[in-house]
Design brief:
CATH class: Mainly Alpha
Number of helices: 20
Number of strands: 4
Largest sheet: 2 strands, parallel
Order of helices and strands: HEHHHHHHHHHEEHHEHHHHHHHH
Strand content: under 5%
CATH architecture: Up-down Bundle
Helix content: over 70%
CATH superfamily: MFS general substrate transporter like domains
């Protein structure tokens, strides 16, 4: 049977899907899995782009004449992460309920709502703040897509390929964060969309007036969202064996390892998306002489590019080992940032280091942090499916082949649900990190207090990873 005839068994639904069967995988499974992966990647890419578009737009609003306070601007940058993380909780369980093909197409198409809404709203500087806040919250639709996307791809690949596949899906999808921060300052300077893009606005910077098309930061994604949605609907597949009720998936909530991995993923992906969302504003507040949009996109870029490497490395060395050393690297990166910050009014600043700070050192330290978050994203997501498959296999009777097959199916479903839910939990970092900066600056005069909290949290993640997963007699080596 060819891969095409397999896909046609029930429309786009795969009624036979056994990726752990090596003959099946080599003859037909791998080609189908890769097709679904390479459509999932651009769908996730545009999702991240829409999710993070406010990290660019919020910085530019004052120059366009919007009368919003600094605190309101921080909220606009942080709100998409808050709604996206919350939506991820629900999106985590949608693939078994709706189907991967259907949900990918529908959820991607939903991004047209905030993309079009922002494009029209920024053209009028009398747009009310509540309207802008609602549009920022709607960008969370892009953030929610991550959990369903990762859960969907986890069904297609065998256990020894899940780390690499999930790393590619997430890593290349995460590039949307970097690209939106890099591309937006370029596309807003020219009327690339012609009559469809609307009129130019005047932005005042350093006393000089310049024409911009700020709506392009959102409108530029509209055609790609439409194309990707159509491709997902007509070319992806649903996996019949992935069907499961919410009640069956809800077993993860009584599993200790689900919550432990949520904490670890908060430390990796939560750090990635939080650092990405807050990086431009943090640069602007600590190094006002630097143009934040000229540098901020580089951090998410390196973090996204190394994520597939994190998944691949974990497939080779084990996810727990890679994650353990990754959290040590995150802790070291935070100390580097603290060292190179200007020694101003911050109550909890280090007592040594350059008095005026060093942007080069600060930026290099953040690149270390982004690299570490990217590797950790891949390694933690490799751990989760392995943990739940192992749990279910341990519970099955060793001599009962049928029970073992059922355990493998149940472990795959639970692993996918846990991947999605961990993604939801971790995404709250995108809200808490930028808000922590703002709170720390208001309360102590600098961001140092927030950074010290991050440092302590990473050390706690080191302890969790070592005790439960990485030490010689660990409860769940993976």
């Amino acid at each position: 049977m060819t891969s095409r005839s397999l896909a046609a068994q029930a429309g786009r639904t795969l009624t036979v899907w056994t990726p752990e069967d090596k003959a099946f995988w080599q003859q037909q499974g791998e080609a189908i899995a890769k097709l679904n992966l390479w459509i999932s990647v651009p769908a996730l890419f545009v999702s991240f782009a829409v999710w993070q578009v406010w990290s660019v737009v919020a910085v530019s609003l004052p120059g366009l004449g919007f009368k919003y306070s600094t605190n309101q601007l921080f909220w606009l940058a942080a709100a998409p992460a808050l709604s996206g993380a919350t939506l991820r909780i629900f999106y985590s369980f949608m693939i078994p309920l709706v189907g991967g093909r259907r949900w990918t197409a529908i959820s991607t198409a939903s991004l047209l709502i905030p993309a079009l809404g922002i494009g029209f709203a920024v053209q009028d500087n009398t747009t009310s703040y509540p309207t802008m806040l609602v549009l920022a919250l709607l960008c969370g639709l892009g953030g929610g897509n991550f959990s369903s996307s990762m859960a969907n791809i986890s069904y297609f690949f065998p256990k020894d390929r899940k780390g690499s596949a999930l790393g590619v899906n997430a890593g290349l999808g995460n590039l949307g964060v970097s690209v939106v921060q890099f591309l937006s300052p370029i596309v807003v300077t020219v009327g690339v969309l012609g009559v469809f893009g609307g009129e130019a606005q005047t932005i005042v910077k350093n006393g000089q007036a310049t024409q911009v098309w700020m709506q392009n930061a959102a409108f530029i994604w509209v055609p790609w969202i439409a194309i990707t949605s159509i491709a997902a609907w007509f070319a992806m597949n649903d996996v019949a064996d992935a069907k499961a009720s919410f009640a069956a998936q809800a077993e993860i909530f009584v599993r200790k390892h689900n919550w432990l991995m949520c904490v670890l993923y908060l430390g990796t992906f939560g750090s990635f998306i939080g650092f990405a969302a807050g990086f431009p504003l943090l640069i602007k507040s600590q190094f006002p002489q630097v143009n934040p949009l000229a540098y901020a996109w580089l951090g998410p870029l390196v973090g996204a590019l190394v994520r597939p490497f994190g998944g691949w490395l974990s497939d080779k060395l084990g996810g727990a080992r890679v994650t353990l050393w990754d959290f040590w690297l995150l802790a070291a990166g935070v100390l580097g940032v603290l060292y190179f910050l200007p020694k101003g009014a911050g109550t909890y600043a280090l007592g040594f280091g350059p008095v005026d700070g060093s942007f080069a050192g600060f930026f290099a330290s953040f690149l270390v942090l982004f690299v570490a978050t990217g590797i950790g994203n891949g390694s933690t997501f490799r751990m989760i499916p392995v943990i739940f498959n192992t749990l279910k296999q341990r519970e099955a009777r060793a001599t009962d082949a049928a029970a073992k097959a059922q355990a493998l199916k149940e472990g795959t479903v639970l692993g996918a649900a846990a991947v999605g839910f961990a993604g939801a939990f971790g995404a709250y970092g995108g809200f808490f990190i930028p808000k922590s900066y703002g709170t720390s600056i208001t309360a102590t005069g600098g961001p140092e207090a927030a950074l010290w909290v991050f440092f302590a949290f990473y050390l706690a993640c080191v302890a969790i990873t070592w005790w439960f997963y990485a030490r010689r007699d660990a409860e769940m080596p993976c």
